[in-house]
Amino acid sequence: MTATIDTRPQGANPFDPDAGLAGIGTPPAARNSSSSAPRSSAPSFLPNGGVGASRTGARRGVITVTGPVGPRYGEILSTDALQFLALLHDRFDAARDELIARRQLRRQDIADGSDPDFRASTRPVRDDPHWRVAGSRRAPGLEDRRVEITGPTDPKMTINALNSGARCWLADAEDASSPTWPNVVEGQLALHDAIRGTLSFTNEAGKEYALRSSTIADLPTIVFRPRGWHLDETHLRYTDANGITSSALGSLVDFGLYFFHNAAELIARGRGPYFYLPKLEGYKEARLWNEVFEVAQDALGIPRGTIRATVLIETLPAAFEMEEILYELRDHCAGLNAGRWDYLFSVIKCFRTRGDSYVLPDRAQVTMTAPFMRAYTELLVATCHKRGAHAIGGMSAFIPDRRSPEVTERAFHQVAADKKREARDGFDGTWVAHPDLIPVAAREFDAVLGDAPNQVSRLRDDVEVGQHDLLDIASARRAGATVTSAGLRSNVSVAIRYLDAWLRGTGAAALDNLMEDAATAEISRSQVWQWIASGTVTDDDQLPVTRERVEAILLDVVASLSPDHGNRIEEAAAIFREVALKDAFPPFLTNAAYQGHLVGSAADQV
């Protein structure tokens, strides 16, 4: 195992190297001086169930398993896999903490009135017309991504997704997955078996599920989404070289276990280790992921550039750094995705205290044709194609109901219109949340793409998007969208019911004929917080949104929900009060809910 060495060509550029990008103005030795010594390839076996990474034989960090161990867990949490996780934490745990601190400072700056903008310090990267990302070159299975299905990685959903007929499957360990310990480990087991063609599943009623092919190259290409940088994994503990112990990082756990067990197998079977990267807020976070990829590939003897990542542009700060994010990941980057729901959440989070002109109307009325949302997606397509990257569209929340033709017809109509717009705007592919929507989306992209695998060559030189366009949040209400009492009640109801499902181990829930996940729950609770903080009045009845009003709605919603075995409605209500009704605004509802309610619960047991 060797230390990471930056072999990219250096260039003299006239801006601050610390504010600039890796590979520009900073010699490799300076960037890697703390990691220049070689690491031993032999594991250091430690007591108490932990395995540490070693450097020249010296004992260093250790990963300890503290969660319960179920059948076959040892196959995923093997000695070598834990050593690999320790290596990643040794290298990147402190850097991640620094980035999270930078996020908080930047978020406060925006809340205090400093608008995000395109960085002057990184303009040379944006102005350089020559560089391109790796894209789908030498990445089998990523050339044509016109329809991707999304979903969690439990065995049933894994089989259904891989049998769906989509071009790709976003195997989701993040927003569509409740991070219970069984979901984390057994999701890895399901992926492990699916890649090797051995996965099968029988439900409690005796129904059997099996893959339609044992050859992974015959099935949708797997693109795995680990948890974001902000989430921890409590069931694995990392003790650093100084003896300081903390929870492992969910992002490194998810990425590390999947990559360690499956990267070589995927390559041998005609695919590759492909990833979606969630919740990035800037190019430095992309740089950290690129360094993780380099270290991981070196450690396992896999050539650099084998990994391909698609970055979700789902935060407002990241929208101003799309080219820089592509540049940082250029040797490992396949494209960008318009993560629309988290993007709306980020807009609310950034501007939650900036007054009425930044208040978003009902979530259902904020469409993708709202000027500020259209600016975001148009810029994403233009940026991707300028640099040879795929632009992947987001997910319409409408889902069919096989028991209700009327609901299904409405979902088909809404999704078809959404995908037609994306295809015509230049997107190379899109997401759906239900197998029945695959033909609907495919028809719209087939009409534009024909036999071509993508439309990356279609440059959108006509797109001109500036700071004002991305920040014109008031454009949605100027166009007639409103804040309503029904929208307020819907936010409370969706948040409570989703949190109840999440606490019971389900991360993607069909509610009111919409597919809800953690991102839409975040919109629901953050809108309520913003409406209260801004003194917003609901347009239909001219009543202010107050804590007292929301509390009354909350009690009514809780009373209306039928109790059943394992119901966690009261806990869901308690979480909602913490994240929507208190003075402080938690950056993510999942952090407190995970630590305070999910870990150790019945859903968290093996």
TrEMBL record:
Keywords: Acyltransferase, Glyoxylate bypass, Transferase, Tricarboxylic acid cycle
Domain Malate synthase TIM barrel: start-end pairs: 221-473
EC number: 2.3.3.9
InterPro entries documented for this protein: Malate_synth_C_sf, Malate_synth_sf, Malate_synthA, Malate_synthase_CS, Malate_synthase_TIM, MS_C, MS_N, MS_N_TIM-barrel_dom
Name of the top EC class for this enzyme: transferase
SUPFAM superfamilies: Malate synthase G
GO molecular function, one term: malate synthase activity
Comp. bias (Low complexity): 27-44
Pathway in which the depicted protein is active: Carbohydrate metabolism; glyoxylate cycle; (S)-malate from isocitrate: step 2/2
Domain of life per record: Bacteria
Domain Malate synthase C-terminal: 483-595
Catalysed reactions listed for this entry: glyoxylate + acetyl-CoA + H2O = (S)-malate + CoA + H(+)
Every Malate synthase N-terminal domain range: 64-122
Family, per entry: Belongs to the malate synthase family.
NCBIfam families: malate_syn_A (TIGR01344)
Entry protein name: Malate synthase
Species for this entry: Promicromonospora aerolata
Gene giving rise to this polypeptide: aceB
